[in-house]
Amino acid sequence: MGGSLANNQLEKTITLVLSARLRSLLEARGIPVAFTRDADATVDLNRRAEIANHVNAQACLSLHASESGGGVHLFVSSLAPAPPTRFAAWKTAQSAWVTRSLGLAGSLNSALVQAGMTVTLGRTALPVVDSMTCPAVAIEIAPERGPGKKITAELDDPDYQARVAAALAAALLDWRSEVRQP
Amino acid sequence: MIPRYQAVLLSLMLLASVVMSVVLWQLLERAHQRMLVGQDSAPTQAPEVAPTVQATLLVASDADNTLLVQVQSLPLPQDPGSRARVILGKLMDLYAAPDADHPVPGGASSIAQVFLLPVPNSDSNPASSSSTPVAGKPARGQPKPAESKATAPMPEQTSPPPPGPQLAVVNLTGAFAASHPSGLETETLTVLSICGTLHANLPRVTQVRFLVDGQPRTTLAGHADLSRTYLAAEAVPRP
């Protein structure tokens, strides 16, 4: 997806930089990472979900950026939880994973709040996430805002991106250890 | 003495002239009648002002990802579809205001039409669809006392509503979709506030679908799914 942001920035550029930061942090901790894209390339929405589903990931993150609101927005699929079935419908495949996705969102929320960030939680209908068969959360980065909605860190602020990536990496480490427990 | 063929030709031309005169006379009469009918349909009385009733709007706030209930007094038409369009138009006007918490350009003209249809394969049981509107709850925390009026009276139903739950089809303008800010949160809030506002004012509306310029569209501005049917209960974001 490629939404346009302020100052002629593109959403895909911001998310690509953030994902590269996150990848280096996770791989440095021995966590393998699979990307739907690692360059400025267009990947079909269904193909993105296919990639995520084929690697059998412990966590799937869909990264986004927006000028609206402030802080970090965490979204889980609005599909109602459903028991897993052998053959899942493509558009509602996430329904069997929603409960675990909510758990993942909780871990991400805790880490981001602990890092001093403003976090909002919500549910949404996002075609890519709705087709994923893994604990999946859509993460939208917005500018950091202080009192009076004044922007204190823009989306392309390297320090802001580094703090967000560090918090996400910490949350994924915790999540991985939780998943491994019997 | 003129030749025979010229006499026949002259007769035919004379006959054609007479026929054309008759046809022209009839066309003139028809045009005159149409003009008189048009004069008859001209408004001779001032249009009636629709009665003012209370409408419940679920207004989005980008700052905290919530939908806040606002009750406004609006002159609303009797027809449910027109009424829904006016209410959603007011909602869009709030978003187009300079100091809006959920800034979206476009205003009332962003809502081209709202169609209300029976839900396919519904059980047509009014009791099953007249549950308490749930769209008035904010996404997070408790409602703010000053702004939350979830118990506000619903608009009066002056005509008997059709039985059973209804599907609302909201036709947005292409200009609105093109100018909508791109983002997961902002697009989701716009969709949910429309669904929640419709359900709050027309409780029989249990499902909502979206069109843009009369055509199906994948997403609003790159994120929120517009290809699916939204349940009114989904207007309450569940954290």
Structure in words:
- The complex is a heterodimer of chains A (182) and B (239).
- Chain A is α/β, with parallel strands linked by helices.
- Chain A is built from 5 helices and 6 strands; from the N terminus they run ααββαβαβββα.
- In chain A, strands 1-4-2-3 form a 4-stranded mixed β-sheet.
- In chain A, a hairpin with a 5-residue loop joins β5 and β6.
- Chain A starts with 10 loop residues before the first helix and ends with a helix.
- About 15% of the residues of chain B have low confidence.
- Chain B contains 5 helices and 6 strands, in the order αββαβαβααββ.
- By secondary structure, chain B is an alpha+beta fold.
- The termini of chain B are far apart.
- In chain B, α2 runs antiparallel to α5.
- Classes of the chains: A alpha/beta (182), B alpha+beta (239).
What order do the helices and strands come in, and which of them pair?
The complex is a heterodimer of chains A (182) and B (239).
Chain A lengths: L10 H18 L16 H10 L5 E6 L6 E6 L20 H17 L4 E6 L2 H4 L5 E6 L2 E2 L5 E3 L4 H23 L2
Parallel strand pairs in A: 1-4, 2-3
Antiparallel strand pairs in A: 2-4, 5-6
Chain B lengths: L3 H37 L11 E10 L4 E10 L4 H17 L14 E8 L7 H4 L36 E7 L1 H6 L4 H18 L3 E8 L17 E2 L8
Parallel strand pairs in B: 4-5
Antiparallel strand pairs in B: 1-2, 3-4, 5-6
Helix pairs in contact in B: 2-5
Question: Keyphrases for this structure?
Answer:
heterodimer; A: 182 residues; alpha/beta; two-stranded antiparallel ribbon; 40% helix; B: 239 residues; alpha+beta; 5 helices; 19% strand
